[in-house]
Amino acid sequence: MEKTFLMVKPDGVQRQLVGEIISRFERKGFQLVGGKLMNVSSELAGEHYAEHKERPFFNDLVEFITSGPVFAMVWQGENVISTSRKMMGVTNPKEATPGTIRGDFGLTVRKNIIHGSDSPESAVREIGLFFSEQELQDYSKLINRWIY
Ligand code: RTP
Ligand code: MG
């Protein structure tokens, strides 16, 4: 089953949107297989955002993601990588459609509430950066026949 890495960013945690966000993905039918409230070190932030190293906003990005606890999660389900990106809305909340997480809760591109892997390669890489094998659960057999 496809897996993705989602993370409520420090603004989402401070604004107490963790439950709301988990609830949206649960109601959709996706399955939470790992989750933890944690602090992101500068080293981890640098690796996570390595693709943006040369961008002018890179330092800002690292400063923001390390500024307070995040809620890191792994979710699974059919097409979860691209469907969760649609549920998040586009990067800039100013352009995000109402009904999406960023469209409903965000105002600026820097504080856009949530991160989600953008491809199967990113998902594998990011899950590996944030979670060990032992932190991921496998209980899908119990619920799948009601969804698929
Ligand atoms: P994310 O990685 O956080 O899920 O967001 P994304 O794929 O939608 O966007 P991405 O291009 O990967 O950018 C990562 C984060 O950098 C911040 N950003 N700031 N022009 C700017 O100042 C700018 N552009 C991007 C955003 O917080 C974005 O989520
Ligand atoms: Mg991205």
Automatic annotation (TrEMBL):
One of its GO terms (cellular component) is cytoplasm. It holds the Pfam family NDK. It is found in: Cytoplasm. The lineage of its organism: Bacteria, Bacillati, Bacillota, Bacilli, Bacillales. The modification Phosphothreonine is found at T91. This is Nucleoside diphosphate kinase. It is an enzyme of class 2 (transferase). Its main location: cytoplasm. Signal peptide: none annotated. CDD domains: NDPk_I. Its cofactor is Mg(2+). The active site is at H115. The modification Phosphoserine is found at S122. Keywords: ATP-binding, Cytoplasm, Kinase, Magnesium, Metal-binding, Nucleotide metabolism, Nucleotide-binding, Phosphoprotein, Transferase. ATP binds at K9, F57, R85, T91, R102, N112. Its EC number is 2.7.4.6. Belongs to the NDK family. It catalyses: dZDP + ATP = dZTP + ADP; a 2'-deoxyribonucleoside 5'-diphosphate + ATP = a 2'-deoxyribonucleoside 5'-triphosphate + ADP; a ribonucleoside 5'-diphosphate + ATP = a ribonucleoside 5'-triphosphate + ADP.
